[in-house]
Amino acid sequence: MRRWRTLSLQARQLLAASLALVAFLGFTGYALDRAFVDTAQNALRVRLETLAIAYVQGSEFDRGRNFIPPEIPPDIRFTLIGQGLYASVRGAGLRWESESVRGRSLPPVELLGPGETRFEGPLRIIDAHGMENAVYSYSMGVVWESVDDFEVTFSVYEDAAQIQAQVIVFRRALWSYLGVATIALLLLQLGVLRWSLLPLRNVEREVARVRAGQSQRLSGWHPRELEAITESVNGLIESERSHLERSRNTLSDLAHSLKTPLAVLRARLEADAGNEELRAEVETQVQRMNEIVSYQLSRAARSGHALFAAPIEIEPRAEEIVAGLEKVYAAKGVLCEFEIDGAARFHGELGDLQELLGNLLENAFKWAGSRVLLRVQGEPAPNRRPGVTFEVEDDGPGIPPDKVERVLQRGVRGDERVQGHGIGLSIVQDIVAAYRGEFSVGRSEELGGARFVVRFPPAI
């Protein structure tokens, strides 16, 4: 059983198609064979019926009910022994057989009523040498009105060897041609399967090249049935590569950030500072390093995301975040309004959704005068993962267009320890980039302050 499960796709398709092809051709051959046999038997029946009618038309009976055959029989073989064509007449006290029957024993004939006919076969007869042969017979019941409505049964027989020879020739030709056709179709089928599975083999080779480090990603030239797979594989590759790159950058940033406090400590040690002064400096720098390490670790933890995740309902998460922010900024009396599409869902990790909404809303609460607006709109797409758009607006001072690039700048060491635009918006950018989304900053037409838009488009 396990052996069958490990069959390749090509072997599975070839086996299934071959069995179906052989079954189809076998059924076709059987149907053609039966059709030919039925046709041959029907032709024989018509021929025997014609001979029987000709015998009836050319025959006579005398007053003594003696049968007088035609001077010239319908077929010369009725007068020749061993030619396979026989005739007989049966009636009350009447038994007549053609000369060709000499030395043979015909099968018994059942007397038929007027107008009744019967075609039978193959029937067994015994020849002069005691050998068994088979014949087909056609019998018809006739009333001879000129002889007191004398009822007789005319029968005509023909050896089955002739029709059997025709069937043998036909079957030999039929199965020979079907055999050749089967082999040709199997070879054609093998070629078609190899051609149709060529894209899968190409994907396999490309995956091997990526695994060996000879290529960075799968190519985009694949049939549309494989596009979803190749794009997903490329997404996994790029996600892994991006995760590794972000991890390296985080370690690099951490090492670079720790250089300054370590350099300060070294300088204070070399300067022979007093114990109290050195203690205070160590405490300050250790606190600073602790803040740097905590931030960089949390930043590294946020660097990855699940490529395929269950959809998360957005409104309950937003309500939780806003409830907490309203407590923190209770003194400002900021009111947050929701315009959330009930069908909108976030396809990703819960932590990423919380970080995204938390940083955008906290930034809005911090700079708002009295109003914050959160809009969430779903973006359905048939046969694809739906998209979603987040918009956060406030009535604060806003961000001048010439300062947007600086506000969104990443890696600014002086701001990384400060709670504000630097860290929060940098985290938002990281999350948006990880999910291949779009992030823009502008001015709110409705509230007059800043307007942050995050869009995650539909994806395969």
TrEMBL record:
This is histidine kinase. Residues 194-245 form the HAMP domain. It is found in: Membrane. The keyword ATP-binding applies. One of its GO terms (cellular component) is plasma membrane. PANTHER family: SENSOR HISTIDINE KINASE TRCS (PTHR45436:SF5), SENSOR HISTIDINE KINASE YKOH (PTHR45436). It is an enzyme of class 2 (transferase). InterPro entries: HAMP_dom, HATPase_C_sf, HATPase_dom, His_kinase_dom, HisK_dim/P_dom, HisK_dim/P_sf, PhoQ/CarS-like_HATPase, Sig_transdc_His_kin-like_C. Residues 253-460 form the Histidine kinase domain. Pfam families: HATPase_c. Keywords: ATP-binding, Kinase, Membrane, Nucleotide-binding, Phosphoprotein, Transferase, Transmembrane, Transmembrane helix, Two-component regulatory system. Its EC number is 2.7.13.3. Gene3D superfamilies: 1.10.287.130, Histidine kinase-like ATPase, C-terminal domain (3.30.565.10). SUPFAM superfamilies: ATPase domain of HSP90 chaperone/DNA topoisomerase II/histidine kinase, Homodimeric domain of signal transducing histidine kinase. One of its GO terms (molecular function) is phosphorelay sensor kinase activity. Its main location: membrane. CDD domains: HATPase_PhoQ-like (cd16954), HisKA (cd00082). It comes from Arenimonas composti TR7-09 = DSM 18010. It catalyses: ATP + protein L-histidine = ADP + protein N-phospho-L-histidine. The chain crosses the membrane at residues 174-195.
